[in-house]
Specification:
heterodimer; A: two-stranded antiparallel sheet; 2 strands; disordered N terminus; B: 3 domains; five-stranded parallel sheet; 11 helices
Amino acid sequence: MIRMTFVTTSRCFFGSIIRVTFLGVKRLIDWRRNLSFLNIFKSDAARRTASFAGHVVPDSSRCVQCGICTYNCPIGIDVRAHVWRGEAINNNECLTCGECVARCPRGVLRFERTDLFTTGAK
Amino acid sequence: MRYVIVGTGVAGIAAIEAIRSLDKKGEVIMVGDDPHGFYSRPGLAYYLTGEMHDKGLFPKTRDDYARLDFKYHKASVSKINRFEKSLLLDGKTPLPYDKLLIATGAIAAPLTVPGANLKGVVKLDHLEDARHILSLAKRGRTAIVVGGGITALELTEGLLARGVTVQYLLRGDRYWSNVLDEHESRIVEARLQEEGVTLHFHSEITEVLGKNGKVSGVRLLNGQSLKCDILAYAIGIKPRVELAREAELALDRGMLVNEFMQTNDSDIYAAGDVAQVYDPASGRSVLDSLWSPAREQGFTAGLNMAGQKKPYIKSPPFNVTRLAGLTTTIIGAVGHGLDEDIVGIARGDSETWRQLPDASVAQSGFDVNRIRLLVGEKNLIGAVVMGDQTLSMPLQKIISGKMDISSVRDKLLTQNAKIADLVMEYWSNYVAA
């Protein structure tokens, strides 16, 4: 799994290495992480569906800019910078894997559905 | 126009963003004595637990700084000369200003018992403190943590995560008694005990014991001695007002500012933990020690410094924290009175939480998912949400918007009411309307 990530993006490779040293092997078998790795290899079409179906939005007033979200993003999106500006994670590359949502110690981030073709949905 | 900002915290950075949104040409200079400049100080807690590495605590990139176009002087300010409108840096270099912002923050209130200067007695203010704690935790096996509030708990959790055995001392009979109710305190305490923390209530340190200049234990008021390799304290914070005092600016416990964040000198502003801000709604000047208000205050100060008259509107205090692994949101007025463990105000604290008007309490849930509401006559005035955070956003809006809850008030106050369901129902109806 680690090597696959390495192939995909170098930032994630470094992230994984740091994680091994800092947090032990336990995190690597975290199912969410494995799922997020699988996400990377979804076809582009599937990814687009995922990002249409939902995106990550912040409640900036809860945030203290600690950076755990950015640190844990498998593809290196600076999630924290979005939160500072009060913006949804509108990066096309976002896999909506939920790493940042799950790891934020202050519950800053949540998923919101983006139904482009239905109105009134939240 | 030259703007000078003293302090490298979030209030200072937000002020620069505000100034630059109005004035692209003026000269902006930031002065600070923290060797690391701007970083997430609340994030230090997660650096201690190992969830975050220290280099990741810096939110701004080189490009961000370039865009803000300001100069940074690493220096400490020795004096403000109000009559010449100039600062004295490091006791020698003068730095004139047109508009000055003091955003020096607050530091840990000192431990004032004999032996408090021994090696191994630590606090958590800066990145250097956190690094120091981690280096001690590599060798130390046992630690004593003293103090109430969030920082003391963060120290406890950080040391635990590093494999140190922790004993936690509280002067009172429960954890954070002025903000949490008894049930909430007990939840936190039970979770700490599960993690192996030994709690000592009604305990007060009278002396720090040492050997060869290093801490070896503490003596308590009841005569008992406890051994430790590390003593960490977080008994409250003190706004850094020395500069303001010397310059004879208006002071109470913090620097007094009006709603435009202006001190009694119209060219000098203050924001963040150092500022005690006038709140027109209550007619009082209040100290907050919270990240979000510091950012808003800094931003407001910046706008006013650059010429846009804009008042700071204090929203109901709101903080999110993690208490023994439980995400907890505290909104509005929820507690009362004084906490024996905290001198004045603690980090992540707001005085407004303790100014509790007449209210009834509605409670719901058990242990890990718990909601407590403080129900006023027509609206909700406070809430504590522990565990599941689904309702904290609606509650924040209901409380800050002073929304009329008359329609569900009686139901909320019935015994064993399903508070979470009622709030959710009320919120869904509101959103649908």
